[in-house]
Amino acid sequence: MSKQIAILGSTGSIGVQALEVIAANKDLYEVNLLTANNQWEKLAEQARTFEPDAVVIANKEHYTKLKEALADLPIKVYAGSEAINQCVENPNIDIVLTALVGFSGLAPTIHAIKTNKVIALANKETLVVAGELINRLALQFQTPIIPVDSEHSAIFQCLVGEVGNNIEKLLLTASGGPFRNSTLKELKSVTKNDALKHPNWNMGAKITIDSASMMNKGFEVIEAKWLFNIDIDRIEVLVHPQSVIHSMVQFEDGAVKAQLGVPDMKVPIQYAFSFPDRLKSNFERLDFSKYNTLTFEKPDMEKFRNLAFAYNASKTSGNMPCILNAANEIVVSAFLHDRIGFLEMSDIIEEIMMNSEVIKQPTLEDYFETDRLIRIKTNELINNKYR
Ligand code: MN3
User: Fold this and answer.
1) CATH numbers and ranges of domains, the chain
2) How far is the CA of 284 from the centre of ligand 1 (A)?
3) From CA 143, how far away is CA 113, in angstroms rounded?
4) pLDDT at residue 37, as a whole number
5) CA atoms 69, 71, 73, 78: torsion sign
């Protein structure tokens, strides 16, 4: 019996690569549900190829076009984010890959957890925003969460067979992004085109900017804290520009385990689908003669302040990581629209974090309300002060 997979965010970089993994393993996996935000043409094309039970386009404006494009096929077509939450609960679905961007991943992930799907988690913002709540629900509903993020997949793979053994620390590797060697003065004037050129990974625009600003690594620290239930002070970021070691675990006897490979998201995607098995693949193999030097350095948290903000937000806890995430989503969008400079993204996030009320034990509604208010507040700050 093949496993039925839902891909939330199928037209993005992770979604497309997940479909390649499924296409290469047709006897094992079937597509049950595909969802996209705006790219209805690409979604229709994917639906034609993979014949899911249903497709959802989040932006309702595109519903009629999508419906017409698939009129000759027996595929259910829906629109709106509420439809994603409902379709994900289909009892035939075994695995839900959450590859949506940002806060929008939270609600459907909760619906998937409550209906006992295996969560292949690519949307790190879900854990950044509401890790405590998500872990509580996953425990209550006995739902496994398997990381797709390459660093977390690496750590997850290092932990196979280590149940009960204490972790001394996690070494989360970071490429350092395109501005690793830039000075603060240079960072002041970098453009979105500079920031969109990632040295090792080919990803969507939002995560590429997050990588350049190291907000992505900050989010990954928080993501690791919740996935592996470890104190944030035991998570160390290590800049490793070659991106060959995807992350490491140091155990209490001093032994360090690492997972290596060429930078290719299909490996962690496939592992999340096949865990605990490994599937034969034709992915590019690591050729050590091409990587004769692996280097490591400490991150510069004065240059990349977002990384420090993430540690601080996590220590403050409550809704502070949610505040951090909402402010970041707005500043990244503003930067991509040339409304603010690269370093101003951090200035704005810091100002928002300092001037927002902390809710110590937020409910799900508090997270939604925090997200809504911080988006408004951050936009107001940009409009009043930065233009
Ligand atoms: Mn990553």
Assistant:
1) 3-147 (3.40.50.720), 149-306 (no CATH), 317-387 (1.10.1740.10)
2) 19
3) 6
4) 96
5) positive
What pLDDT is recorded for position 371?
97
CA of 152 to the centre of ligand 1 (A): 7
Mean pLDDT of the chain: 96
- Which residues touch 240 (CB under 8 Å, ≥6 apart)? 173, 174, 175, 176, 294, 295, 296
CA of 80 to the centre of ligand 1 (A): 28
Cα diameter, the chain: 62
CA atoms of 238 and 300, how far apart (whole Å): 10
Residue 298's Cβ-count burial label (10 Å; 0-12, 13-18, 19+) is exposed
Residue 191 CA to ligand 1 centre (angstroms): 23
In the prediction, which pLDDT does 202 show? Answer: 77
Distance 126 CA to ligand 1 centre (A): 14
Residues of the chain with pLDDT under 50: none
At position 364, the amino acid (one-letter code) is L
User: Given this model, what pLDDT does residue 252 score?
Assistant: 98
What residues sit around ligand 1, an ion, with C-beta below 5 angstroms?
A: 149-151
269 C-alpha to ligand 1 centroid (Å): 12
Taking the centre of ligand 1 as the mean of its atom positions, its distance from the CA of residue 41, in whole angstroms, is 28
> Residue 148 Cα, ligand 1 centroid: separation in angstroms?
8
CA angle 168, 171, 175 (to 5 degrees): 175
In this predicted structure, what is the pLDDT of residue 77? 98
Structure tokens at 302: 């004065």
73 CA distance to ligand 1 centroid (A)?
37
Calculate the CA dihedral of residues 14, 20, 25, 31 and round it to 10 degrees: 70
Backbone φ, ψ for residue 180 (5° rounding): -55, -40
The Å distance, Cα 307 to ligand 1 centre, comes to 14
Comparing CA positions, the residue from 147, 123, 299 lying closest to residue 219 is 123
Distance CA 147, CA 259 (A): 14
Structure tokens, 46: 């994917």
**What's the whole-model pTM score?**
0.96
79 burial class (0-12, 13-18, 19+ CB within 10 angstroms)?
A: buried
